[in-house]
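Page 37, top half.
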Amino acid sequence: MKTAVITAPEQVEVQEASLPEPQEGQVRLRLEGCGLCASNIPVWEGREWFTYPVAAGNPGHEGWGVVDALGAGVENVKPGDRVAALSYNSYAQYDIADADKVVKLPEALAGKPFPGEPLGCAMNIFKRSDISAGQTVTILGVGFLGALLVQLAKNAGARVIAISQREFSLEIARECGADETIQMDDHYKIIEKVKELTGEKFCERVIECTGKEWPLNLAGELTAERGKLIIAGFHQDGMRQVNIQLWNWRGIDVINAHERDPQEYIKGMRAAVKAVADGTLNPDKLYTHTYTLANIGKAFDNLKTRPDGFVKALITY
């Protein structure tokens, strides 16, 4: 099979490798594609804690495809089943997944890309956010995750305010149903605008999707008394300073909405399958760029620089 290997920071090669063999309780997938995740940026750029070359196919973890072979004892899927998987070496034509970490895709999704892990992540974050009709929800950062959460919050009957840096992202937010959009530029102007929009009460729910310190502190400022601040951004690149006095004074519930239990991920992926199949969630317009293994280096570069029009990139095989 062909597989991508990050051999050094910002260097990737397509190499030949033997087909992996599923062990007991595992399945082999013939992958149709894999999404690119912003969490890939540190290993692409290079950090002192990474060693190179990275394992073949890693860090691809948003793969979907067709079950190709079974290990002993697998009964929940069969060869030919189309599935999304929670696996970790999916920048390749084939990958191995534990049988209890694959989710069948129904006929309603035939032919459609389905990066299950981020779609499931959005469903889990939405569930943890406890959003209901009549609430005002602000979402900071409208990339793939933020746009999905705009859709989910709007479909739940909430009034949605979307805040993002790029005008293109704000257009996407409006297409996904946002009631109000605000440029993420001036800290105090944003606070005053949201204060005006909410009759000085601010927002019952604020979801931070950027993974950056400033928007995290801005999120606290926009959260109402006894509201919930949901941290959905990927804060894995260092310490953060936050205004704990404000959080404490307003009695804010702060929720770290990343799941680490694989079975919770799988629950989210199953919920995403249902939501996409029944139209509650529509990710199709958010898949803006497609690459092959042959130009995966360009895909990583664009993931890092995010050219105008870039929301979600897929690698297809």
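Page 37, bottom half:
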Amino acid sequence: MKTDRPRVMAAARPDAMPLPIRQDVHAFTKPEVFDRWSDTAAGVRALTVGDNVITMFDVIGEDYWSGGGVTAKKVASQLKAIGDRPVEVQINSPGGDMFEGIAIFNVLREHPQDITVKVMGMAASAASIIAMAGDHVEMGAASFLMIHNCWVLAIGNRHDMRETAEWLEPFDQAMVDLYAARTSQKPADIAKWMDAETYMSGSQAVERGFADALLASDQITTDEKAQSADRNINELRAMELQLVSAGMSRSAARARINKIKGTPGAAPNDPTPGAGEDDWSGIADLIATLRTS
């Protein structure tokens, strides 16, 4: 669609972002974001992967349910293996731990050579922070980039809630500053987009300066096997967060889900009944109950 507004050109990689010193607070992706990723981006991959490519087709941070996840430690190791060469980062992630995303951003921005980021399906929440580390950012026309305020789960009285809100505010401002430095958009506009939890299509991201160009459609494919696996694991992640949001601890929520599903990541030769198998019976009913409660 033709527009009279000039496209905003993206700027260079911004400076490093601050990391929290508290270890008792973790930022998450909301369950609804996992749902949208499952519906629109699960299984989307690149057609080709070179020896200088880092793929981020998972949640940000260590993932209990898959045994995987994208971490700063893993990315640093991959960069070391690639060496002093240009790097391509391929992203299709619903996000995850925002603070781990900041750490990964900081690791990438220290790389001495150019970094090209390609958003294959979605770069939501913490993954959108990582995308800003690219010297050149490309997005699929049907891909999405989502930005929002830091989302955490907290329990306590009004004093605890006020303390948590005050503690989070500088990190939301740091994200505003990051996006503004990358896009040259007004910080006030970016803050409004974050407040509204804004999804941008590839063309919108390019227009606003979050990306530089659209990816050619022949660079992207959908792996049906990966799509099925992504969606199954994603249901467990979303369910865990919904149970925690209802007041359960993470360990209690995981134990409840494991009673239905079986042990995640169990070896195929584990003699425990059901170990190494994905038993999804009962999962759909529990999800439906949680979403209507």
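Margin note: The CA atoms of residues 222 and 256 lie 32 Å apart.
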